[in-house]
Amino acid sequence: MPEELPAVDVLMSTYNGQQFLPEQIDSILDQHAARLRLLVRDDGSTDPTCTLLQQYAELRPGQIELLADGEHLGACASFGRLLLAAKAPYVMFSDQDDVWLSGKVALLLRRMLQAEAVHGRNCPVLVHSDLCVVDWTGRLLGKSFWKYQNIDPIVGSSLNRLLIQNVATGCAMMVNRALVQLAAPIPPEAIMHDWWLALVAAAFGRIECLTEPTVLYRQHGGNQIGACRWDAAHLVRKARTVFDRRPVTENMRRTAAQAQALLQRYGPQLSQQQREAVAAFAALPSSGFLQRRLHIARYGFLRTGWIRNLALLVRV
What pLDDT band is residue 286 in, cutting at 50, 70 and 90? Predict the structure, then answer.
């Protein structure tokens, strides 16, 4: 592969992923817009995933590198360890069960280079795209993950909104070296690696969105996060639990802890307005009934769509 092509590290964390792994690895290695290194860390699989990875590494020396330590960390910490091992100027993230569309790397890299040309390579940049949602057989469920989930990635990319809802999906993301250096290591309070990277990019750099899907995002019942269609049936199910505060309370606790970690690490670097907003969000769990709602309104801690926000205000 020509040396003049940009180098990209693709980070993949696996866990009992034998069933779909070959199709995913093949779809990554078939990309031709960059010099790719697939850096894989297994998170303690008990199926033949490790054997399969070793076979691929032997077939593709130099293209696939296994980060072997055997410790079970969970997805966020596993990707965090991979991020520390990444060396390329650009980094992407891969789930073990999706399929990358043929032009994915080219599309994300083009937008990344455009953003760096305008803002400089020292500017932390995150580029992410839409995804197609498919079932375990590859049958199309939704042409747009954003529509499927009723997500607005443009409105949702501001820091105040990212504190409460992540709109950037890791497996459809590329980040540059400036963002990696600023965001790593990922703290234990981070809910997911992609959410943490999006928060840091929103605070100090740029988030760029591509409306073209670049991934077949497979739903099979074992997903770490997964996607739920935002339709009438989903809303009816949600309505039945509208007064159950427990999920919202737990979510608020976790997102507040993530915000507190952001404040502790970057407090002096944040603008005064950013510091006030992040501190107010981190304090939500310990705030009173009226104060929580006042802070949500004042700082715009809102999710995508009025239904989500109505449910938030009812249950928070």
Answer: very high
* Three-state secondary structure of the chain: CCCCCCEEEEEEEECCCCCCHHHHHHHHHCCCCCEEEEEEEECCCCCCHHHHHHHHHHHCCCCEEECCCCCCCCHHHHHHHHHHHCCCCEEEEECCCCEECCCHHHHHHHHHHHHHHHHCCCCCEEEEECCEEEECCCCEEECCHHHHCCCCCCHHHCHHHHCCCCCCCHHHEEEEHHHHHHHCCCCCCCCCHHHHHHHHHHHHCEEEEECCCCEEEEECCCCCCCCCCCCHHHHHHHHCCCCCCHHHHHHHHHHHHHHHHHHHHHHHHCCHHHHHHHHHHHCHHHCCHHHHHHHHHHHCCCCCCHHHHHHHHHHC
| Cα(57)–Cα(43) distance, integer angstroms | 17
Q: pLDDT tens digits, residue range 59-71? A: 998 899 999 887 8
CA nearest 101: which of 42, 160, 145?
A: 145
- 188-203 pLDDT tens trace: 999 999 999 999 999 9
* Sign of the alpha-carbon dihedral angle for 84, 88, 92, 94: negative
